[in-house]
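Lay summary. Proteins are chains of building blocks that fold into shapes, and those shapes determine what they do. In this project we predict the shape from the chain. Here is one chain we studied, written as its sequence of building blocks.
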Amino acid sequence: MLRIAICDDAAAYGYRLAGIVENWARQRQLNVQLKNFISGEELLADIEATGYFHIVLMDIDLKGGMNGIETAEKIQEIYKHFCLIFISQYDNYYKEAFRLHPFQYLEKPAVKSRLIENLNQAVDNYGHLREMFAFRFRGLTHSVRLHEVLYFASDKRVIRICMEDGREFVFYAKLDEIEKKLERYSCRFVRIHKSYLVNGGQVELYHPKYVRMRNKEKLPVSVDKRSSLMHFHMGIMEMFG
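And here is the predicted shape, written in a compact code that computers can read:
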């Protein structure tokens, strides 16, 4: 399910946007959960209670104590894997909003065709947010969202999956097989050691001898993997530079 939030202090305009999004989702045959908010405080409270949104359509001027930029900043402090689209009539906020690396900044009122175009691009570019990795353990099939995986760790044939929320899963497989399987996914993983396969989107710091994950855990980089890790890192920098 694709979760989309609309945060706009003008409730009528927010519901107009919701109608456009609902029609777009119906045409794309997407299973969407859509919620409207008029303040950043409401949006943050809902995230805490029900979980994160994949796409957030954010106005700058909101009711309550926080504006849209401050709200988006708060979300990014706890969760970076979402598509942020600002929709505002205030173009003087553009430079301030740009530091948050939004997917798009649309002038309000947003042109329907531009909004739909951006929603299509967001779904295509952020498709990895819905990618699932399935595995079997003790006769049961389990699945996890790949973008929430910090890394796969191997101890002989025992694989441990470490998640960003602290959960861990265990199953039996070879890390080479998992690495090969993950090549067909959009979520990018890189082998840094014979025992570690890490999620590039979860790496906070690259160092020739180690990587630091977003949970502050340091994982060793073996000598034979340093060159490939460097090329991987350069590729990431080119994508976002």
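What the prediction tells us: Residues 132-240 form a domain with the OB fold (Dihydrolipoamide Acetyltransferase, E2P) fold (CATH 2.40.50.1020).
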